[in-house]
Amino acid sequence: MNMKKNLLMTLLLCMVCLVANAQKFALIDMEYILKNIPAYERANEQLNQISKKWQSEVEALALEAQTLYKNYQSEAVFLSEEQKIKKEEEIVAKEKEAQELKRKYFGPEGELYKKRESLMAPIQEEIYTAVKEISDAKGYSVVVDRASAASIIYASPKIDISNEVLVKLGYTN
């Protein structure tokens, strides 16, 4: 049984090597490309400016909450129980407001993410189009980004077996 597995693995490896030799591959360095696109540098600068502005807004709210807390600590002995509760609620509300603003600006679907997408998507699309045109002209089946070794920037539809895999799994398109 073990010998059959080894033989099968050897055959599969040989087949993969044969198929790989028949394909043309290319590399790109996305970091290098982006550094040489002025629009990308401008977009990055704009994102940095926006990020700093929003960060200062969040920090200002957090500072307000901190000031409220310090004032509460110094005044606590003079406050009635009802006044203490009111002040505590005010502090918690201010802290919550700061956290919500931070999430709004910097969260996974926040304003910074949306702004980055709107600024970078056209640049990325242009790069993809250029890579595709070069790949089509020179017959490259796969283009790999050396800056992020695992990313495939363009793969020829001719080598895409996704539909065959779906059929094999029992799904039809």
Major sheet characteristics: 3 strands, mixed
Query: Helix segment count?
Result: 6
String of helices and strands = HEHHHHEEH
Question: Approximately what portion of the residues adopt beta-strand conformation?
Answer: 5-15%
Strand tally is 3
Cα-to-Cα separation, first versus last residue: 37 Å
Mean of pLDDT: 82
The helix/strand class is mainly alpha
Number of domains: 1
Helical coverage, percent range: over 70%
- What coarse outline follows from CA principal-axis ratios? elongated
The rounded Rg comes to: 28 Å
List the uncertain runs.
Answer: none
Biggest sheet strand order reads 1-2-3
Explain what this protein looks like in three dimensions.
With 173 residues, the chain is mainly α. It has one domain (22-168). The protein is 73% helix and 7% strand. It contains six helices and three strands, in the order H-E-H-H-H-H-E-E-H. Strand 2 and strand 3 form a beta hairpin. Helix 3 (38-75) runs antiparallel to helix 4 (81-106) and helix 3 packs antiparallel against helix 5. The two termini are 37 Å apart.
What's the helix and strand layout?
Elements: H1 2-22, E1 25-28, H2 30-35, H3 38-75, H4 81-106, H5 111-138, E2 142-145, E3 152-155, H6 162-168
Helix pairs in contact: 3-4, 3-5
